[in-house]
Amino acid sequence: MKPTQDAVNRADGSEAQFVVPAGARTVDDAVADWRKLVAPHRKPRGVETSESHLKAHTPPELGQVPLSQVNVRRVQEFVNKISLGRSGKMVENIVLTLTGILRHGSKWEMK
Could you give the domains of the chain? Predict the structure, then answer.
């Protein structure tokens, strides 16, 4: 616990930092599972589009966020960041890719 507290206390606030608890699944983990379990069963063009969204937008912004911390507010902040210079339809498609992956991830986590 002490190293985690020290890391948080050293953060100067200039960039967002996430303290990911040991064993916690992140958005990157859900994306990896989606690529392995879902993507092979999708049409190639759909996978290509999803991969484009993932490579350009989702992991850089949300990849290290624990799934337990992905909420409506965090998704809205993500939408606000990616909206600059993009059409509404492009933003909608990126968010649909993200929510589809998160939906699969939540189903896999159900007991």
Answer: 44-111 (1.10.150)
